[in-house]
Design brief:
Number of domains: 3
Number of helices: 16
Shape: globular
CATH architecture of the largest domain: Beta Barrel
Number of strands: 9
Oligomer: single chain
Strand content: 15-25%
Helix content: 40-55%
Radius of gyration: 28 Å
Strand order of the largest sheet: 1-5-4-3-2-6-7-8
Largest sheet: 8 strands, antiparallel, barrel
Order of helices and strands: EEHEEEHHEEEHEHHHHHHHHHHHH
CATH superfamily of the largest domain: Hypothetical Protein Pfu-838710-001
Distance between the termini: 45 Å
Length: 543
């Protein structure tokens, strides 16, 4: 299900490989062994003016914003890197959002600037470079005649002026896949073409945008939030604090763009990033200035809570849709029940979507990003942060784990007592409180995993099993409660003799199914906890 967001223009997914070549490079015969054919499409002149902040903030993030004419795709183009997957290999993957030239008065369109607001944060965006390219295009077809890739040969000139004089020149090749890169035949053809180009003298390298090559070192400098440093148990704990902040601030910024675009699962991932940042600041509490950390945690709580309303409704709707799919589709009451559920939850999501987008556009939210960038580069740490990770990080993790263990012990005792008394076990609220403690413990372990690696990761995996079963319990309990409310309101609205009274019956059936799921989670929990709480998972904290 798509997240709340704004859709600007047309979005195109690009999967490319780039090659550097000298100006005298001669194009070889391409992919002859794969039965491919090549269509020559001729040469076109393209002119692109790139826009960025004074410190080239967009370029440093791998983002480009340009106004281009020529080549058949005149318009404003915003290119945003896509989260890299294991299938990406050497390919650079970007989404290009396009708007027509007449969408603005010569300035970058507000619709595109809004997508990168958390990066730009009110800084002026102005022209920084104009590139003129002489582009020769070749389309590669597979043995069946399908167009599967496009190879463009660009001779690029950096213009300086006015007057527009050539300040620098370079040549590069781009191999762009036109079909699914997961298709084995396409992958084989791409590898063969790449091998042919390399054999002829082309140099594969980093995926670098033309404007970055043209502008030089400043554009290629690290982004505002650099990659997290490597951390070992013997390193100062300050490095672990920096690493945690950078890792999750980078994630928050990446998901911000996706939420604004309405990408699937983006709200969930952005909320997770905010929660992990909050949890890390709590874990590192002895190592950081408390007033500073608490201020950040308050703002991150606001972000996570605002996104949470949408995410909770999204999860609940998907869950209930699956329940409905298990019932007879030709039963009129099932269809009506689906309508009742969708009407309720779509309205919740509409309200939450509006609140989320208002938050993303608020000055308060952009000020938080200023603070997070500063935190990721120069966190306000205490003298204790200069001590080794092995000395100062394990106690707060042990404290979080200890809190969880106590809550679980009390929960299991209350569950058994409740069952003996015939009241159905411990109340849902107590299970939810234990879930919160489990998530805090898991996040605490995750914050220390970069320093302690495999042993900490193993404990984190066990705690993930605990949070998963407790999460299933919570989802079932919330779903059952929502269905009870809907069934009650539907029964009142339709009346006992109405033909639509069957809708309330369907909702009651779904409610019973959700309570059964709650019972199943409770039954599974004790065994999962017994395995996850084995001492062997925590030995690394005792060393």
């Amino acid at each position: 299900m798509r997240s709340p967001g704004v859709t600007a223009g047309t979005a195109v997914r690009e999967v490319e490989r780039k090659f550097r070549v000298h100006e005298g490079f001669r194009m070889p015969e391409l992919a002859a062994g794969c039965g491919a054919s090549v269509d020559e499409r001729g040469t076109a002149a393209l002119t692109a003016t790139y826009h960025d902040t004074e410190d080239l903030r967009l370029a440093r993030e791998g983002i480009t914003l340009r106004r281009r004419t020529g080549g058949g795709d005149d318009g404003w183009h915003l290119k945003i890197p896509v989260r890299r997957s294991s299938k990406a290999g050497r390919d650079g993957i970007r989404d290009e959002i396009r708007l027509p030239l007449d969408s603005s008065d010569g300035q970058p369109p507000a619709e595109l600037l809004s997508l990168v607001a958390a990066v730009v944060r009110g800084n002026a965006v102005r022209p920084v470079a104009t590139l003129r390219s002489e582009r020769t295009t070749r389309v590669l077809r597979d043995a069946a005649g399908r167009p599967v890739a496009e190879l463009v040969d660009d001779v690029v000139s950096l213009l300086d002026g006015p007057p527009a004089e050539v300040a620098a020149r370079f040549r590069e090749l781009e191999l762009e896949l036109l079909t699914d890169p997961g298709d084995e035949r396409v992958a084989v053809l791409a590898e063969q073409v790449s091998a042919d180009l390399i054999a002829a003298g082309a140099v594969p390298g980093e995926f670098v945008a033309k404007v970055v090559r043209a502008l030089g070192p400043t554009a290629a400098a690290p982004p505002e939030v650099p990659e997290p440093p490597e951390v070992r148990p013997t390193d100062p704990a300050r490095l672990a604090v920096i690493g945690h902040l950078r890792r999750h601030v980078r994630a928050l910024r990446a998901e911000d763009v996706l939420v604004r675009r309405g990408a699937e699962d983006a709200v969930h991932q952005m909320r997770v990033a905010a929660r992990r940042l909050r949890s890390g600041l709590q874990v590192f509490r002895p190592l950081v200035d408390r007033q500073w950390a608490d201020a950040l945690r308050d703002e991150l709580r606001w972000v996570a809570a605002t996104l949470g309303d949408y995410r909770d409704a999204e999860v609940l709707l998907a869950r209930l849709e699956r329940r409905l799919d298990s019932l007879p589709a030709d039963e009129p009451a099932v269809a009506e029940a689906r309508t009742v559920i969708r009407r309720r939850l779509h309205e919740q999501m509409r309200v939450a979507r509006h609140a989320s987008l208002e938050m993303l556009d608020s000055p308060r939210y952009l000020r938080l990003h200023d603070a997070l960038v500063a935190a990721a580069n120069e966190p306000r740490t205490t003298a204790a942060a200069e001590l080794p990770c092995a000395q100062v990080l394990t106690p707060p993790v042990g404290k979080a784990y200890g809190t969880l263990a106590k809550k679980v012990s009390r929960l299991l005792a209350d569950e058994e007592a409740g069952l003996r008394a015939g009241v159905g076990g411990a109340p849902d609220e107590e299970w939810h409180e234990t879930r919160i403690a489990a998530k805090r413990a898991r996040y605490a372990v995750d914050a220390c995993t970069p320093a302690f690696r495999d042993p900490a990761a193993a404990l984190g995996k066990q705690l993930s099993r605990v949070t998963e079963v407790l999460g299933e319990h919570q989802d079932g309990a919330v779903a059952a409660q929502t269905l009870h409310q809907l069934a009650s309101s539907t029964a009142v609205a339709t009346g006992a003799t109405s033909g639509r009274s069957g809708v309330a019956d369907i909702l009651a059936v779904l409610q019973r199914a959700e309570r059964d799921a709650v019972s199943a989670s409770r039954a599974a929990f004790a065994d999962i906890w017994a395995q996850a709480s084995e001492r062997r998972w925590r030995l690394w904290m005792e060393e």
